[in-house]
Amino acid sequence: MKKISLTLLAFCAALGVSAQAKKDPKCANVNVTQYEPEVIFKRIITTPQIKSQEVKMVIVKFAPGEVSGAHRHPIPTIAYVLQGNISSTFNGKTHIYKQGEAFWEDPNGLHAESKNMSKTEEAKLLVYFIGPKELPFITAAK
């Protein structure tokens, strides 16, 4: 899994775009944790095989003990745990991911919750989204 994350990071670096932290207006009304997701990279892909797709890298932070709200990602999602341990319930299955591990979420699956397992330390994810540029990377659960 680390190889996937490193490959994607290298791919993004190869695009030659500087990272800029900002909010994504398409996701403005979705609050999953007490911190707003921080988009650190965004670029429209012009490669003919995947034209008109957008790649985003987002930092998601969890306060100590914080549990996220239910949500969905309408586009493919790859997450990498930068810090801490995260319990994630996706499509009815719960798994604990530790620092240095990566995981995949299929589009539109129900992400019932994510929980920072520590009561004293923040947890952080680096999340990659790749999909049509007009879609938000997160939506409220329905």
From TrEMBL:
Parts of the chain that traverse the membrane: none
Pfam entry (one): Cupin_2
UniProt-listed SUPFAM superfamilies: RmlC-like cupins
Domain Cupin type-2: 59-127
Source organism of this protein record: Mucilaginibacter gossypii
InterPro entries from the UniProt entry: Cupin_2, RmlC-like_jellyroll, RmlC_Cupin_sf
Coiled-coil annotated residue ranges, if any: none
Annotated signal sequence range: 1-21
PANTHER family reported for this sequence: CUPIN DOMAIN PROTEIN (AFU_ORTHOLOGUE AFUA_3G13620) (PTHR38599:SF1)
Name of the molecule in the record: Cupin domain protein
Gene3D superfamilies, alphabetized: Jelly Rolls
